[in-house]
Amino acid sequence: MKRARLESLNGKAEAIFNDFSSLQSALDAASAFQGVKYSALEPERQFLIEKDWNYFGLFSMGQDGPVPVESFSVPDSRADFLEGTVRESIVELASSRPRLAIETASKFASSRLLRIPVSSGFPESPVRIFIENVLFSGRAPIVDSKGQKSFERVFSSPVIDFSGLVSLVCSEPVNNLGFETMNCGCCVPDSIDAKNILPSGRVNVRFLKEGFYFNSCSKAWANSFHESNDFRESRQLRKEEYGLSVFPSGPFSRGMEKEILLGDARRLQMSGDVEIISGSSYEWVCSKVESALSKEINSMKSALDSVSAGLETEKNLQLNSSGLLYYSEGSCEKVFGSAVSAVASEVLCALPHALRSGFGQKLGVALEAISGAVASDLESIASSAGSRFSAGFCRAAVEPEFAHYIFREFSGLYNVKKPLVRISPSFD
User: Fold this and answer.
1) How far apart are the first and last CA of the chain?
2) Are residues 174 and 168 in contact, defined by beta-carbon separation less than 8 angstroms?
3) Over the stretch 91-110, which tens digit does the pLDDT of each residue have?
């Protein structure tokens, strides 16, 4: 019996093994040859991802077999380490040992959302597991590396962190960012107005002001511009003088033509600083097939929406039947719903930082450009309120007296709540 077979898929060779040990041996050989550490998901997780199932999921019986039911309610099943069902155990612990109730609920929430055994507990890096699932689903190799958050700037003013919102904007229906859907061969855009175009593409612009500098939405692009163009000392001095986190791009003279990022070009054209002349090198996403990344992000969002709606319904029922004094914040639904929300929001808020730092410049610049487009909306609100504004990747600093007003207006604009958009005194 053959241990493996090779299949060609979109110009890539895919090896399928009959047993896990043979797969692991092949990965070890590939790791030694390539000089990187490749990983394989455990067979159970592979099976669940391929089926689009989860641990403790609910099913209804259809004509062709079991059909998953989209629900994130408390599992009413049993586990070896619990005396009763999950629901019964959380109810009992919530009244006697609330901290243990939260820990138990978190284990089951992690298992449900990340497709890992409940015995794994709460993972050290949920976003890394999330990305592994995306890579496997998208038929991409899994490299054993841990994406870390990178806060490249110190803010002393109140900071609005919109990392979770950037994750949502990366997914359908807004975008369809993904390892396998960027620059597909079937949906090549014919203009900068195409719906599937990314702000990380490049266009030719004509500058309309003399001695002009601008701060790019992309640190990677700004660094590349700085290294490959004249006047490096001028940019270094300007960066130090203004306390910038990235090198400014410039100086540009009136009438000068240059290739810059589409996201920057659109913002500068709106402010009357440049005019877009022509497209140069587009970046886009597939319009026909949803990426594995988008599917997983939307699954997390669905979990957040489901538990939020369930908690609101339960609260209203308790208030209507028993009155305010009898509404319990320690109910089983509240404990489990909070655990689901904590896991999902942690993944979504950490995701842009992990993807930006560990998966190549093309994806990194796309994420920075998407973050920059969101920051432009935030800047408009700050400007209308009369507040100074300073943006970094997925976050922006505003003046203290305007912070809560700007936060409320921005959250309402995108119809997204905490913790996907959050405010804090500062980042350090």
Assistant:
1) 58
2) yes
3) 888 888 888 999 999 999 99
- Six-digit token string for 170: 């990366």
The three-state secondary structure class of 40 is coil
Q: What does the pLDDT look like over 307-335, one tens digit per residue? A: 888 777 777 776 676 555 444 556 888 88
Q: What is the dihedral of CA 217, 218, 221, 224, to 10 degrees?
A: 110
Residue type for position 407? F
CB 297 within 8 A of CB 351: yes
Closest CA to 130 of 311, 373, 358: 358
Distance CA 265, CA 261 (A): 6
Res 141 pLDDT > 90:
no
* Structure-block tokens of residue 59: 């099913």
- Other residues' Cβ atoms within 10 Å of the Cβ of residue 323: 9
Q: Could you tell me if 179 and 238 are in contact, meaning their C-beta atoms sit under 8 angstroms apart?
A: no
How far is CA 109 from its chain centroid?
19
Q: Decide: helix, strand or coil at residue 97.
A: coil
Least confident of 18-22, 56-60, 131-135: 18-22
231 contact partners, CB below 8 Å, separation of at least 6: 250, 251
Q: What pLDDT score was predicted for residue 123?
A: 84
Choice among 64-78, 140-154, 401-415 with the minimum mean pLDDT: 140-154
Token reading at 394: 């997925």
Query: Which spans in 323-359 are helix H?
Result: 332-358
Q: Please state the rounded mean pLDDT for residues 388-400.
A: 91
Can you read off the two tokens belonging to residue 209?
A: 């002001």
Q: Tell me the two tokens of residue 341.
A: 């929300």
- Provide the residue ranges of all domains of the chain, joining segments of one domain with +: 4-137, 159-183+289-424, 202-281
The dihedral through the CA atoms of 85, 87, 88, 94 has a sign that is positive
Q: ∠ CA(81), CA(87), CA(92), 5° rounding? A: 80
Inter-residue contact 350 to 369 (CB < 8 Å): no
Short-list 267, 141, 122, CA closest to 205: 267
Q: 197 phi and psi, to 5 degrees?
A: -80, 145
Using DSSP, state whether 293 is helix, strand or coil: helix
